[in-house]
Structures
1.
Amino acid sequence: MNRKYKIASLFSGCGGLDLGFIQAGFEVVWANDFFKEAVETYKANIGNHIVYGDITQIASSGIPDNFDILLGGFPCQGFSVANTKRSMEDERNFLYLEMIRLIRDKQPKFFLAENVKGLLSMQKGKVIEMILNDFRELGYKVDYKLIKASEYGVPQHRERVVIIGNRLGLENPFPIKTHGEENTLYNNNNNNLKPFVSVKDVVGHLAEERPRVCSFDIDNKTIYNHNARTNVADKFWGRKHKVNQHEICDYLKYWRNKSGWSTKKIDEHFGYAHTAGHWFRKDNNSGSIPNPKDWWELKNILGFDDKYDKAVTELELKVIKFEQSLRINNWDRPSDTITATGPEIHPNKERRMSVRECAIIQTFPDDFIFKGSIGNMYKQIGNAVPVLLAHKIAIEIRRFLDNHNSEILKEKNGYRTIEENRKIREKVS
Ligand SMILES: C[S@@+](CC[C@H](N)C(=O)[O-])C[C@H]1O[C@@H](n2cnc3c(N)ncnc32)[C@H](O)[C@@H]1O
């Protein structure tokens, strides 16, 4: 089917999520955000249908009817489920209630909400439960999934919760993983996944390019926004005490053997792919000490004593020197999450990753040009859903909508008059 399904988009930012859907053939008819520079970027690259303003101040009557999908990555600061008597007049003014309002008022076929992983653990899972229930009460079939962008070809281990709902009675579609760890002699992931895309794969060509505000050409391609912050001394939370990795490794191995847990089972418990192995590897190049959060969880499952608790878990704020920063970015692996607050330091240059490099890691196209101050550009990019991930989700939803529509037509054709069929076609278009 060649029909363009229509989208309304809340909390659109600079448009990462929207762009992925547009690339999959959807049409965004209305979008909104109150982040001025993000709106400027959106207008310059996607379209003038974005309305600048606070969504809580925009009446449903001011938003078009008859869209098929509502998109929105609602912010989730300040959630509390203490007050269980919720209503639309709720003084806590949760922003996801704006999605609820529009779903109730406009009845789209699908909705999709995106959020940070932390949403799942907020108030011991009560927040996500509350949100899902509120969506379900509108009569939608709702599912959610924690999605790791790197497993869909994005060069970034970004994890996000994707909530999808539909009122067509369909199973909610989620994309299938396409990428994973490369098979090696020791690690055979036994599937047909392509290897993760690394940072070097996508931004290696910019490593030797001096950052600058103006655009320039390399290999007949114009590079925009390759400007970068050059403050490479910063602070980070580091271990307060000197800890010997070999000692910790021996200690953890002893407790692991005693408890009967295998490394694989520990990884599964944490939801990691190949991290626990490093805790039991006595090797300065690839062995590592668990971070405090993982340490406490490890203690829960292996039941070890308090001997190293203090040494491993006490942190202090330290100043990063450039040399230390060399290890911050994963050059040969997918990057850590590109955040809205400030990018990582380039692995081999005395500068941070440029706006363009961050945009590329977030899978924005090369000709997508960001507007605003450098800080605001970094923020727009860090806030965004990787375009490629959005695209893959969009393709699945599109497939479901197409199948659903052709089923309706098939079912009805032949049993109805031409006039009735025309009405059905109108209904599904
Ligand atoms: C996580 S970002 C969304 C990013 C976007 N989905 C993308 O892929 O580029 C959340 C956005 O919600 C916007 N926002 C927060 N509160 C808002 C409000 N009351 N009205 C309109 N926009 C709001 C922020 O300005 C921010 O751009």
2.
Amino acid sequence: MQNVLTFSLSIFLMVFTQQISVAQPIHQMPTLGYSYDALEPYIDGQTMEIHFSKHHQAYLTNLNKALNGTKAEKLPLELLLLGAERRGAAIRNNGGGHYNHTLFWSILSPNPEKSPSGKLADDIHKTFTSVDSLKKLLNNGASTRFGSGWVWLYVTPEKKLAVCSTPNQDNPIMDAAKENRGIPILGIDVWEHAYYLKYQNKRGDYLGAIWNVIDWSKVGMLYENALKDPLLKDIEKDDWTALKEFHLVMAQTFHPMEEGKLEPIKTRSGEMLEKAQILAKSKVPTTFKSDAITKALTDLVDGSAKLDKLIKKKGKDDKIKESLTKLHDTFHVIQGLCSDDH
Ligand SMILES: [Fe+2]
């Protein structure tokens, strides 16, 4: 009997230990794909080693630490970045640091394709007239970035190519990027840790040299992927401030009502109507424009006006509940129509 118990306990401990050992954080270091000194003489081995194994590793460690045990722990990195400003400094800086460096390593190569081809080449010519003028724009953005940051070539929600620079570890996916939002396909790190050991204060020399190791075939692949990435639509929706503001009032009144509390909607029905009117008048993002959205926005204003009137006339609780539930359904027509399946 004792043997059976010992055996069962060993099996239990084995399974339990295995379960602990496989519980890895979802965000992991990428594989570099080339040796630290492979990009010499343009980027020296010591800089690469410190940059990858110390700086990038620290962003990742701190990101996982900030996420540990939170609701956001299982979110894909891109969706974390989408709301980086609202999620706070730890996620914004370390999530950005992890994303930006992962992209950076992936577009560097000891055997790079030295110029773009295919659709990327065509669209660069259409947007910037030539690859050289694009490089000039990027180098100019990088050399005028005060302090630390990045310069980006990115794809806008309208699927256009654009250039911007961001401070610290921000990037165009983030809400913090304001009017420069999109999916980055080429990024240059202009933190001193990226070049100081070899170039010291000469950021311009580093910017001149780095084009020798940027692999345009990789940038081209990232471009093709970005053009079909549902994240573009998420960014556009996240930028629709009036929708977010209405959503907030709806969430803060509808959910208490589900728990039997009508006080929030009774005190905020006027504000709800005002937010619905602002939403209906706001610029609907291009990719969401449709007759169904236009109708739902009109219904939302009508529904909010009826609910507000009912509350001002001290209508019955049952009627208020019914009216708010209907309005919530109308709102989810907009949310649903805007949503992607991923
Ligand atoms: Fe860096």
